[in-house]
Amino acid sequence: MAFVDQKGQFLACIALSTVLIIDTGHAMTQIQFANPLGAKGWRVSRNPIRCGLSLTIPNFGIAYFEQYAAQPPHFIIRTWNEVQQYLPAKIIIKSPNWKPDRPAVLAGELMVKPGEFGIYLKRDASLKLLTFLSQGYEPNFSYRAETGFNTLVALSPVGFQKPYSRYQECIGSLLPFDYEQVRESVFHYKEDGSELSDKDKDQLRRIARYAEADAQINELRIIGYADANGRKGYNNAVSENRARIVEKYLLHLGVPKKILHVTWVGELYPVARNDTDVGRAANRRVVITLIKK
After folding, report:
1. Cβ-count burial of 264 within 10 angstroms (0-12 exposed, 13-18 middle, 19+ buried)?
2. Helices 161-172 + 123-134 axis angle, to 10
3. pTM of the predicted structure, to 2 decimals
4. Is beta strand 29-33 parallel, antiparallel or unpaired with respect to 150-154?
């Protein structure tokens, strides 16, 4: 039941804060961080491109599970204080309160590394943590701090079920594509043509959905081009018509006119030679770019 391999595939960054627990039978001091009973617990943040399930750990940082559209899930602890060197750490799973007779389980070993987002678990380890929490188990990250104190960071399972259900619902509603799949699109045309293919329309629907979902999108740029197989004025008109048809379709899909920036350049800026059929076909195009703030 390992989360990480012995090579430290998953790295952690953890820091110190408060709550000293002195074991009088040993000479070791332990610092423990946990979300106390009665404090605000797990929270869900959601939109069509990102789902988050987070827990604030007082005096330490924020732990959160996160998944973006078309991407695998991961787990991060964002610490408010950062370590300055690599430190060995362990993942320990404690049994639920209703199973006190079961001992804690060592689930994996990892390395603590410097950086604000040092604890970073990939898909499989994140899903295992979610499973443990959903069953009432308490995952803990344990390590020896740079000051010599043993440090324990706990993820409380208290009040986890309802936020977890909302988080799962959010994941089921994520867009099936991400920004990189719509960031820049290029449509090509037959000679003198300007009509959109079914494939082009499908991509425009994806572009419109993403532009609506991501509040960081502040411009959708459309540029029409032509080959050099006609007079300059004709080529300018053809490139304008291509760009305008794309604009019209996006407006039909509900994209706000204020974010559309439409232009055309005729036969300027070719991407290939205009003395071959293949080159001219490459130059007959419209380029659509989604631009973030």
Report:
1. buried
2. 140
3. 0.83
4. parallel
